[in-house]
Specification:
By secondary structure, the chain is an alpha+beta fold. The chain contains three helices and five strands. The longest helix has 14 residues.
């Protein structure tokens, strides 16, 4: 019988612990960056997620890459980039959906939530708004 895997869960912890070395993928001062999360719905709604520890900011290169990505996708689709923050507990997994939103980007603008909101909550609000339009 096939094993049932819960979607979104870490499937193989040993593989997840492996760090990616991009040192041989360098062009001047340009190197690859990562995206912590991404999904799309119906080829129309695109959600990008980046999670940072506490008040840490994205490095300039990562910020530019993700801003440009969400802005370009947003030219023809509904796109949002959500920056969440988490506390540091080395032995615990990070629950990305429960991270608090520090800021988000949509329609070529950064926005700050007017109240505390989680990554899941802001994604749900964005999806609902985009489906209603």
């Amino acid at each position: 019988m096939a094993e049932i895997i819960e979607r979104g869960k870490i499937r193989n912890r040993e593989y997840a612990k492996q760090l990616r070395d991009f040192s041989k993928l360098r062009w001047g001062n340009i190197t690859p960056t990562d995206i912590d999360g991404y999904f799309e719905m119906d080829n129309q709604i695109f959600v990008f997620i980046e999670i940072k520890y506490g008040s840490r900011e994205m490095l300039r290169g990562q910020a530019l890459a993700l801003e440009r990505l969400v802005d370009v996708v947003g030219e023809t689709k509904d796109a949002i980039l959500i920056i969440g923050m988490h506390g540091y507990e080395p032995a615990a997994d990070i629950d990305a959906g429960s991270c608090i939103v520090k800021k988000y980007r949509t329609r070529n603008k950064w926005r700050i939530p007017f109240k505390e909101i989680t990554v899941r909550e802001i994604a749900d609000i964005f999806i609902k708004k985009m489906k209603e339009k």
